[in-house]
Design goal:
- There is one protein chain.
- The protein is α+β, with helices and mostly antiparallel strands and 99 residues long.
- 59% of the residues lie in helices and 14% in strands.
- The chain has a single domain (4-98), classed as Winged helix-like DNA-binding domain superfamily/Winged helix DNA-binding domain (Arc Repressor Mutant, subunit A, Orthogonal Bundle), CATH 1.10.10.10.
- The protein has helices spanning 4-11, 14-24, 26-29, 43-50, 54-66, 85-98; strands at 41-42, 70-75, 78-83.
- The chain is globular and about 40 Å long.
- 17% of the residues are buried.
């Protein structure tokens, strides 16, 4: 089950919406280095693209993960982030049918 209130809160911020757009087409928005995008995009790549402070980006990413909009996968020292398409699709369907 999705938490609509957390999702609305997460989507209220323009940077968080931008992150979701970037992750929708990561090959267009991030340089693919020695690590591919199979597990998602490294959080360091999002930080680099943002131009914001690390603590600010971390707080925004945590809000997206808490809302269920992003999946976070740790591999060693790396954290990879990807869109949770099931939650996004369910939320869009709820908006479509209730509003």
């Amino acid at each position: 089950m999705i938490n609509e209130n957390l999702i609305h809160k997460a989507l209220a911020n323009p940077f968080r919406r931008a992150v979701l757009r970037w992750l929708k087409a990561p090959k267009e928005h991030f340089v693919q280095g020695h690590v591919g995008f199979a597990r998602g995009v490294p959080s360091s790549a999002i930080l680099e693209r943002s131009g914001l402070a690390q603590s600010t980006v971390s707080a925004h990413l945590a809000a997206l993960v808490e809302a269920g909009l992003l999946d976070s996968t740790r591999v060693g020292q790396w954290i990879f982030l990807s869109r949770n398409e099931d939650v996004i699709r369910s939320f869009a369907e709820q908006i479509k049918s209730h509003l």
